[in-house]
Every structure is written in C-alpha cells, then in structure tokens.
Amino acid sequence: MNKLIPLALCSAATAAPAGVAQLEVTVQIPRLHVAEYHQPYLAVWLESPDRSRLQNLAVWYDVNLKNNEGTEWLKDLRQWWRRLGRELQMPADGVSGATRAPGEHTLTFTAGHPALLDLPPGEYRLIVEAAREVGGRELLEVTFQWPADQVRQLRAQGSRELGAINVRINP
Amino acid sequence: MKPSSAILALTPILLLVTALPTAEAHRAWMLPSSTVLSGEDPWITVDAARSNDLFYFDHNASRLDNLTITTPDGSTVPAQNPRTGKFRSSFDVKLAMNGTYRISIADESMFARYTENGESKRWRGNAARLQAEVPADAQNLQVTQSHNRVEVFVTAGAPTETVFKPEGQGLELVPITHPNDLFAGETARMRFVLDGAPAAGLTVTIIREGIRYRDALQEITTTTGENGEFEVTWPYPGMYWLNVSVGGRGMPGGAGPSQASTNDPQERPARRASYSVTLEVLPQ
C-alpha cells in the first residue's frame, strides 16, 4: 500500500516566516483507561458557514490494515463522512495518515499549502471529529476569520474522546 | 396505459360501501444492520418481519418471494444466505457497487369474498389464479386488489438516486432528501406516488424504534400535499418506520371502491395499497 505522510506533518512545528499567514491546529487525544483501547479515527476540516466551501485538513485512520480494510469505519466519523468523506478516495494524498497515540499533535498549514490555496477570505469553522472503535465519538469546532488581521488564538475543550483543541492563526 | 392505472381511471362512482378486508393488522418492516457504509465491498444483513412492536420479532416472518435488491446502476442482485424462521426472515447483501441500493418486498395480491350455495367464502391469491379458483357463478362477489411494498435504502460510499425511479405500481416513495442522509433535528422532504402519479392527501405515520421501552407510541403524523410531498423533522436519532396506506374511500383518484362483479381480474376490483420504509436517522 501507498504509505502517505500528510503534508501537514512535514511542516509541523516549523515557524512561519514573518508576514506569512499560517493556521496551526493542536489536537489533544486524551489517554483513556478503558478495557479495550483503540486509537481514534480523527478528521480535521474547514467549512464555510453555508458549507459551500469544504476543505479536508487531515484524516487519521487505520491505514495499515491489508486491503484498505481500515476504511470500513470511516463512516463513524459521521459528520465528516457526510460532508467530505464519502466523496473522497482513500487513502487521500496529503490528507490521510495513520491514527495517533494519546498526546498532543500539531498540524501547521502555511499560506500556499494546498489546503489553504484558493481559500476565499471569510468566516470558517474548523471542525475536529473523533470516533473510537468500541468507544465514543466527539466533535468540536471553532470559528475564525481567514485571513486573520492579527494573531488569533482559539480553543475548544473536549470532554470524552477529545482533549483541548487549540487553533492559532497568524496574519 | 398500464393496466393498474386503467383500473383507477375506469373506477366509477361508489355505488356501495364494500366491506373490505381490514388493513394489515401487523406492521411489516425490514431492518438493515447498517444504512450508511464505507470501505470496499461492505456487507449488510437485513431482517424482514411483521410485528406489533417496532422493531421486535413478535408475530411472523415476512416471505422473501417478492424480494428485489436494486443496485445503484439499476440492475438487480440476488439476496445472499436467505432464511426464513418463525419470527423473521433474514438475508445478506454485498454492496459491491458504490451508491444507493433499494431493497423491496413488493407483493400484489387479490382478495375475494363471495357466497356459494349460501355459504360465505374468502379467497386470497394473485390475479392469475383468481379466475381459476373463484367460481364464475359466485354470488355477491367482492374483489380487492392490494399492492403492499416494504423497503429500505442503503448506501455504500457517496449516495446516488437511480433507485428512486418509481416502478408505477401501488404506493411508492420518491425521496427528495436522500434517505441515507437523515440527521436528528433536520427536516426531510419526500414524495409519495400512487401508480406513478403524485399521491395527495395521504396520512403518513412515522414511529421510532424501541416501542417496547416506552408507554406512549409518540407517533408523528403528517399529510401529503397536492404534489404528494410531505416533510418531517426528526426529533431523535434512531430507526424509524414510516407507513402510508390507502384503500376504500381514501384511495386517491377515485370516489371510493368499486367492486368487480365477476371473477375477471381485468374488471375493476376495489384497491388497497400500502407502503412502509425503515429509515435511519443519525445523531448530529
């Protein structure tokens, strides 16, 4: 199988040169003490208020199963599946990657990144959805203006399947 | 013109209120293991039963003789591993194609009531057997034709709409909101057609699963408008049973039932039609 590394990872934690707009998302996956733990499937995407514009940022799923079998549970990310997933061929270049362990994971998108290219200025929701096999599901969102007029820091706090989501937007 | 619409068109003004067979006393349904699927070649299993409570196996199994599985490209595929037990039938479907499948059990039957040698008789069968099995000299013959359709829709990958094309017999649902894209708190719009034409003024009954564990049925009722359309806002996630039935005076397109006076199946029987679909509403 094609092993794809999300572009976001390649640029993770690199500081953008001054004056270059940047979107940085930090996703906290909580450590859960449950009898049977599987790392969550997780999707991060952008949508305009009327959903006329939808943009995948990352999809983490079980990419290592034979015959692409990990795609069987992608539908459990049900809002993502409805908005974007069901139209997307997986694995998706620059978007999909393996599931992540509990901890903090940062995705950085600098202006010029394919995900931000042609993104018309305006209001967007950044949505993080997580679904765990034999576990639960949680969806968090933050609303922001793109591009930002000044550095913006936004935060949403999960309660079960997600920890804190921190979004930093550099103008 | 199709025979069924000819029957409707020729239906004369009601002369006599006929005692029709009572509406189906039990609810007919299919219950799919999933309605929204991802991955390659996903499978589902489907139960088919008639029961009082939704969705519990408390009466009898539905027969699978008239089961049709229509794929996203309009072709049909056979059910896998079909079996019929006392309370339910089950079968599996491999969704080898991406898109929306329609799974239907569409029964057409004739019901006759008549007097022979002073004795009242009842007969149930299909149109082909009517002439052979009901005597030509039967007295007080009343014939009713019914179309009963039970359906589910399931989608692998992105939804498609090819299977929404009605077949033109009996009551059918023509979704406007996709039936595999239903979410709690959202409003869905759909249309009913009778013999392919918009069916106005029908009462649509919608009942959520889990009847056994609540005292009130909490049914939702609504009525189809001029164009056969209706709307429903889903209060909770879950599996819902949606049903419409018409017959007798409620049969749109005619003043009421007529009755065939001979055992000729072409001769305008009174008509009944019912439609049930199981819809899955997902949480937000």
How would the blueprint of this fold be written?
The complex is a heterodimer of chains A (171) and B (284).
Chain A: H1 7-10, E1 22-29, E2 41-47, E3 54-61, H2 78-83, E4 96-98, E5 103-110, E6 122-131, E7 137-146, E8 152-157, E9 164-170
Parallel strand pairs in A: 3-4
Antiparallel strand pairs in A: 1-5, 1-9, 2-3, 2-6, 6-7, 8-9
Chain B: H1 3-10, E1 27-32, E2 36-37, E3 43-51, E4 60-61, E5 67-70, E6 76-77, E7 80-84, E8 89-94, E9 99-116, E10 119-125, H2 127-133, E11 139-156, E12 171-175, E13 182-183, E14 187-194, E15 197-198, E16 203-208, E17 220-223, E18 229-233, E19 238-247, E20 270-282
Parallel strand pairs in B: 2-11, 11-20, 13-20
Antiparallel strand pairs in B: 1-3, 3-4, 3-8, 5-6, 5-9, 7-8, 9-10, 9-11, 12-14, 14-15, 14-18, 16-17, 16-19, 19-20
Describe this structure in words.
The complex is a heterodimer of chains A (171) and B (284). By secondary structure, chain A is mainly β. Helix content of chain A is 6%, strand content 39%. Chain A has one domain (25-170). Mean pLDDT of chain A is 90; it is low at 1-14. With 284 residues, chain B is mainly β. Chain B has one domain. In chain B, 5% of the residues lie in helices and 47% in strands. In chain B, strand 14 (187-194) and strand 15 form a beta hairpin. Chain B is globular, with a radius of gyration of 20 Å. Mean pLDDT of chain B is 87; it is low at 1-23 and 252-258.
State Rg of chain B: 20 Å
Number of domains of chain A: 1
**What strand order characterises the main sheet of chain A?**
4-3-2-6-7
Q: What sort of overall outline of chain A do the alpha carbons produce when their principal axes are compared?
A: globular
Please provide the ordered H/E string of secondary-structure elements of chain B.
HEEEEEEEEEEHEEEEEEEEEE
Summarize the structure.
The complex is a heterodimer of chains A (171) and B (284). Chain A is mainly beta and 171 residues long. Chain A has helices spanning 7-10, 78-83; strands at residues 22-29, 41-47, 54-61, 96-98, 103-110, 122-131, 137-146, 152-157, 164-170.
